[in-house]
Amino acid sequence: MKRLVIVSNRVALPGIAQPGGLAVALQGALEETGGLWFGWSGNIDPNDSGRLHDEVSGNIRYVTVDLSKRDHDDYYNGFANRTLWPLLHFRVDLVDYSRETYAGYRRVNALFAEKLAPLLREDDLIWVHDYHLIPMAKLLRELGVRSRIGFFLHVPMPSSDLLAALPQHARLFEGLSSYDLIGFQTERDLERFQDYVRLFGRGRVIEHGVLETQRGRRLRAGAFPISIDTARIAQQAASSAARPGVKRLAASLSGRSLAIGADRLDYSKGLPERFRAFERFLKRHHEHRGKLTFLQIAPVSRGEVAEYQHLRHELEQLAGHINGVHAEPDWTPVRYVNRNYPHPLLTGYYRLARIGLVTPLRDGMNLVAKEFVAAQAQEDPGVLVLSTFAGAARELDSALLVNPYDLDGVADALSTALSMPLEERRERWEAMMALLRAHDITAWRRSYLAALREG
Ligand SMILES: O=P(O)(O)OC[C@H]1O[C@H](O[C@H]2O[C@H](CO)[C@@H](O)[C@H](O)[C@H]2O)[C@H](O)[C@@H](O)[C@@H]1O
Ligand SMILES: O=c1ccn([C@@H]2O[C@H](COP(=O)(O)OP(=O)(O)O)[C@@H](O)[C@H]2O)c(=O)[nH]1
């Protein structure tokens, strides 16, 4: 069997908890097959980029690279997260147009390719992940790598008119044509990419999922919705009630219902809108006042980027405002926590909750939505309130689907969720759980790799 080589900016190094679906999902994907995982070490070296770290844990070898402060600023804080991230999440208003950070992005991609190439074997199957590393296949090909190379985009693919706002779009997206297979989260992402190829990419869509470049090279593209380790999450959640942290949360609710959100502190997750919708719920639905506590877990993410700092400030103000106006001496409506919780605890929190509140403005998939469903108790499941703009909404269509901009709609969905009869909660949950059992993280990995091998 060919060795699997995963290349991603974020690597889930053993013993280090990472919020973020890519690290969680790829860890799950690699555990069964083993292989090599290559990417950034998470270290910032004051002087120089390129120091390598090599460690083995179980059947996975991790090789990671340190970055200098300048490279990290230009590549990760800069072009990846101030240019591509907002662009790919439809936020052209937030895009930073800087040639300097683009040069840093190319520099770090070239460094990764140069460090990775000597580690590769001829028959490796190489799987590159996400917007940080779009040029990787082209750079590896230039270094003589002939293996099959796949790419998976974890974030949305916006409409081609938005992509065209990026001055470097032609050169950047032309780089995708060196891959053998390009994977997207949903069919809609794939369709928007095919539009881009037709309208701006100078390529041809031979048939759905089969593309041809201007130079006549054929490659495939497909939708492969990422998922979770459903059985593990369900099992973790089922045995969580005895955990001291879960018991403490349960006791602190004093019999009230819990609504939970768990998201990186990111503007794509729609957190200010969610807080406002919760306040709208308190105003519109007096009958539920004092009966629901909203816990928002929001570990700080990309904290050196200005837009993320502004968001943190805004949420602190909003949480303070809502509690100031609506709290009672014995009830705090919003509990807002900037900490990252490990899965065994988080899944226990999900299971305690009557409502999972997942309302991103745009999200490639959103694994929290899937985890919330998998963590519920069959005999008394909670209700998922899910944004229609999350990739997960395509599959989890038995959730209460909402438009996150429509504050009244989200407020009413909270009320509907609280009043929903047990029978309806079970019906909706069974439908979503059946899907998650069939389409788990293993199924995702197998279907993508089968397509990559096939060619
Ligand atoms: O690595 P960070 O900068 O700390 O950010 C964490 C990850 O965020 C994004 O995750 C995406 O991937 C998830 C799994 O496919 C998906 O469910 C979610 O919708 C996406 O936002 C980012 O794309 C990753 O590269 C980051 O590692
Ligand atoms: O305190 C936290 C908050 C989040 N997560 C995990 O981080 C991932 C977030 O993935 P998602 O796809 O929802 O969004 P992303 O952060 O990748 O955009 C999920 O597996 C969460 O369980 C976590 O482990 N601890």
UniProtKB/TrEMBL annotation:
Which CDD domains does this UniProt record tie to the protein? GT20_TPS
Superkingdom, taxonomy of origin: Bacteria
Q: Does the keyword Cytoplasm apply?
A: no
Would I find Glycosyltransferase among this entry's keywords?
yes
GO MF entries: alpha,alpha-trehalose-phosphate synthase (UDP-forming) activity
User: Which pathway is recorded for this entry?
Assistant: Glycan biosynthesis; trehalose biosynthesis
Q: Which InterPro entries match?
A: Glyco_trans_20, Trehalose_OtsA
Catalytic activity of the protein:
D-glucose 6-phosphate + UDP-alpha-D-glucose = alpha,alpha-trehalose 6-phosphate + UDP + H(+)
Q: What Pfam families does this protein map onto?
A: Glyco_transf_20
**EC numbers on record:** 2.4.1.15
The protein's UniProt keywords, in alphabetical order, are:
Glycosyltransferase, Transferase
Q: Which family does it belong to?
A: Belongs to the glycosyltransferase 20 family.
What is the annotated role of this protein in its UniProt record?
Probably involved in the osmoprotection via the biosynthesis of trehalose. Catalyzes the transfer of glucose from UDP-alpha-D-glucose (UDP-Glc) to D-glucose 6-phosphate (Glc-6-P) to form trehalose-6-phosphate. Acts with retention of the anomeric configuration of the UDP-sugar donor.
Its quaternary organisation is:
Homotetramer.
Q: What is this protein called?
A: Trehalose-6-phosphate synthase
**Biological source species:** Lysobacter niastensis
Give me the gene this protein comes from.
otsA
